[in-house]
Amino acid sequence: MRPGQHRLADDAAKQTARLKVGFVLSRSFTLSAFALFVDTLRLASDEQDRSGRVLADWQVIGSTRHLITSSCGVQVAPTSDFVDPSRFDYIVVVGGLLTVENPVDQQTITFLKQADAKKVPLIGVCTGSFILAAAGLMKRHESCVSWLHYKEFRERFPDLSVRSDRLFNLDRQRGSCAGGSSAADMAALLVRKYISRDAERNALEVLQIEKARAPADIQPRRPLYDDYDDTRVKAAMITMEQFVDGSMPIEKLAAMVGLSRRQLERIFIDKTGMSPAKAYNRVRMERAKSILAQSKAPLIEIALDVGFENASQFTRTFKRTFGQTPSQHRAASRAH
């Protein structure tokens, strides 16, 4: 086949693609999240790893064709200028380092708002949800972020709903993803929806991923508590960590994992041997224990951080939990 015929064949393939995705890369974007997302599409689009854009097509779109530097230093060139966003089934915003003051330019924000006006679904990958939230595009939508970025999201956008206990969220108009390998899980869900289960299976097998995880699967992390095998207990404990000041009512905690307070209490007694309230107190004390060992913060500051009104109340609870006062624990930690 001549080069011109190759181009015609590619053009014809793109016209029949069932899934079209536009990627917006922020300054210092996370390369792994972008690569896993786009490679899942690439491997699902054709058979036998031929990389043809038969069943899916994708473009890296931007306000300029200048190279965009990822957080690891590798650069990626946009393949398309901003075009009519309705050409795409999804616009995926890949975020990165939160220390970058202006992760995208104003033209990009305008483009994302145009996509929203045309009802094109927007997905924030890694810290891409921060970019969408800053643009006012996550109202009435729940953001899913990494547990590592949860506190900062709450501080920046106190009026928006956010969670960090699951891998990703995806509804009709918005999606958000914790980043890392969960980008492949989210892409796999799109492939299954728009192309086929066989295409999803082919992509994951080549990527050496045994099975795509579901949106509600729990984010892997090293917790402050024992690792329990019940996902509802895990989700509740992660939420306790995020509200380590004790401000999360048990009733609301139960509702977040789809249970009544009584149901949650029964499950906690069965799986952990303690009530949710006692487990919550333990999580707060474990956080205080960690701060004591790692910082020189005064006791009153630590007490306020974990939801106590004064240092004496905090000291009594800490000693009751661990058998020594906070000051004794700090001294012992430094002696080692």
From TrEMBL:
The keyword Cell inner membrane is annotated on this UniProt entry: no
InterPro entries: Class_I_gatase-like, DJ-1/PfpI, Homeodomain-like_sf, HTH_AraC, HTH_AraC-typ_CS, INH-QAR, Tscrpt_reg_AraC-type_HTH
Matches recorded under Gene3D superfamilies: 3.40.50.880, Homeodomain-like
CDD domains registered for this protein in UniProt: GATase1_AraC_ArgR_like (cd03136)
UniProt keyword list: DNA-binding, Transcription, Transcription regulation
UniProt cross-references to PROSITE patterns, sorted A to Z: HTH_ARAC_FAMILY_1, HTH_ARAC_FAMILY_2
Keyword Transcription regulation: yes
Extent of the signal sequence: none
GO MF term (any one): sequence-specific DNA binding
Annotated ranges, domain HTH araC/xylS-type: 234-332
Superkingdom: Bacteria
Pfam families the record matches: DJ-1_PfpI, HTH_18
Descriptive protein name: GlxA family transcriptional regulator
